[in-house]
Amino acid sequence: MxxxxxxxxxxxxxxxxxxxxxxxxxxxxxxxxxGSSLTSLxxxxxxxxxxxxxxxxxxxESRNTREQQDAQTMQNLKSIIEDKNTSxxxxxxxxxxxxxxxxARDYETRIELSVKGKGFEDALCLIEGPKAxxxxxxKDSLNEKQSIQIQESVASVSKxxxxxxxxxx
Length: 169
Fold this sequence. Notes:
By secondary structure, the chain is α+β, with helices and mostly antiparallel strands. It has four helices and five strands, in the order αββααββαβ.
């Protein structure tokens, strides 16, 4: 093993450790060093107010539902493409639809990250053909500057100009 291979192995090891730390933070578990893990409760107040928790659940559930539907659609399209009894035209159409779905999913993720980078706590993007719907977590209604920022994010990532923006608490 030469130095280059050792450097690659160490880099990969460091990335694995970083991914583990990130996964622990995302899942809300924090190791306090004594072997027990502390779990943080998401957005619940001591007075039992669960409005913020419900909003978090809304974004989580919507994203989860979207991913499940996309996975099912992708699986169906792949089975059409791989089926020997499918005509060439159907395979071509399925391949185009699979490519469009994959691109839309990538755009949605990139738009969500871009909107979160603009200072919003959470965002959900749904691309529906030539339209994009962006739902952001915001206590107040959005001002014109924020709406323009979101529209610019969508246009820069996906070239979609027809954007519907909703604010959800």
